[in-house]
Specification:
Elements lengths: L4 H6 L2 H8 L6 E5 L2 H8 L29 H6 L11 H13 L4 E4 L22 H9 L2 H8 L16 E6 L8 E7 L2 E7 L7 H5 L1 H16 L8 E7 L5 E8 L11 H6 L6 E3 L19 H4 L6 H14 L5 E5 L17 E5 L1
Parallel strand pairs: 5-8, 9-10
Antiparallel strand pairs: 1-3, 2-3, 4-5, 4-6, 6-7
């Protein structure tokens, strides 16, 4: 299924935001300099100079309960080959953008948010309150890497158009998963609507799916139909606590976008007056999330367990789970199942063996 470079560019949030900002989440845009884009493309997770490690990432199980970051711990996140990069002005712009949007944001590039990298943030969400968290998410995300190298993979043209990479900071909203939906628009009409979080079952969504469909159709007709550049596209929407439908994002109508409870073969054939609505009808038909494969990257598992980076990582995870008295430890074993290192495990420890 082909798509033009223009259609992909039209789905980038800097392209459509000004025309539709009244019905979407308040956002701040920061142009990214080329040296920062190259930094994102480079291997490894090295924080720039002056980018402090968030305090919550070092509380954990250490002897020091003050939560302060000591010099050795801070340096651990800047170790590696080559010089430590420096983006003083950009960091200041990010902090300024966070303040404008109320103190908490969700970061994304032109198309993608780093939702596959929440493992590295102690909140386990995309909620960022400082520039360090924003950079940790961006630098750890394959979804962001997709924006940087493969976003035109399905395009008919082999020529990559020139455009400006932007960092988009979106005001943090605690949106309930039951309120998120993905609408598939073909030839200017919604042909399919899917529950966004297909790993969960919601009784309310099942019992009210006809009304939910009508609300999304009304929103589409009132705000999007004829106002968005593409005739084929995918649009993500959400319902507020008050029941209003709001715009989240646009995506290209092609396999680079997750079809969720549909397949792209089905979507390419759908041509109905009313959209086909699919939700998780019962707990027994839930599917595992594709994001589960992103919970811990291979590069982390390949890092020797006695390094300071591992100590900081485990401290941050233990700090998260201390709230529920559950600890997570990752242990690598040999072919006979014998641990390669000895770790004193706290009670109620969840062990991941690799």
């Amino acid at each position: 299924m082909d798509v033009s470079t223009e259609e992909v560019l039209n789905c980038a949030i800097p392209k459509w935001y000004d025309n539709l900002k009244a019905v979407t989440i308040p956002s701040v845009f920061i142009p990214l300099p080329e040296d920062f884009v190259e930094y994102l493309r480079s291997d490894g997770i090295i924080l720039p100079r002056g980018c402090d490690l968030p305090q919550m990432c070092v509380h954990g199980d250490s002897d020091d309960e003050s939560g302060e970051v000591d010099g050795d711990q801070q340096d651990d996140w800047s170790e590696g080959e080559g010089e430590v990069p420096e983006f003083t002005d950009l960091l200041s712009e990010i902090e300024r953008g966070i303040a404008i949007l109320g103190g908490a944001v969700v970061p994304k590039l032109n198309w993608s948010a780093p939702k596959d990298a929440t493992w590295i943030i102690s909140s386990n969400t995309l909620r960022c309150t400082c520039a360090s968290e924003v950079l940790l998410l961006l630098k750890s995300s394959d979804f962001v890497a997709h924006d940087l190298s493969r976003v035109f993979k399905y395009c008919t043209s082999e020529v990559t158009p020139a455009f400006q990479y932007m960092l988009c900071l979106r005001q943090w909203r605690d949106i309930h998963p039951s309120g998120e939906f993905r609408c598939f628009v073909r030839h200017g009409r919604i042909v399919g609507i899917s529950q966004r979080h297909y790993t969960q079952h919601f009784d309310f969504v099942v019992s009210h799916k006809d009304q939910l469909s009508e609300d999304m159709m009304e929103f589409f007709t009132r705000y999007l139909k004829g106002r968005f550049c593409n005739t084929n596209y995918v649009v993500d929407v959400f319902r507020t606590d008050e029941g209003a439908v709001r715009l989240m994002d646009f995506n290209p109508f092609c396999p680079m976008t997750d079809p969720l409870l549909f397949t792209w073969e089905e979507l390419a054939r759908l041509d109905t007056e009313l959209p086909v609505v699919r939700v998780v009808e019962s707990p027994g038909v839930m599917r595992p999330s594709d994001l589960y494969q992103c919970r811990l990257p291979k590069v982390v598992l390949q890092t020797p367990l006695n390094t300071k980076q591992w100590r900081l990582f485990l401290q941050s995870r233990n700090h998260i789970n201390r709230k529920s008295n559950i600890f997570v430890i990752v242990i690598r074993v040999n072919s006979l199942g014998v641990p390669l290192v000895k770790i004193n495990l706290p009670s109620l420890t969840h062990v991941i063996v690799t």
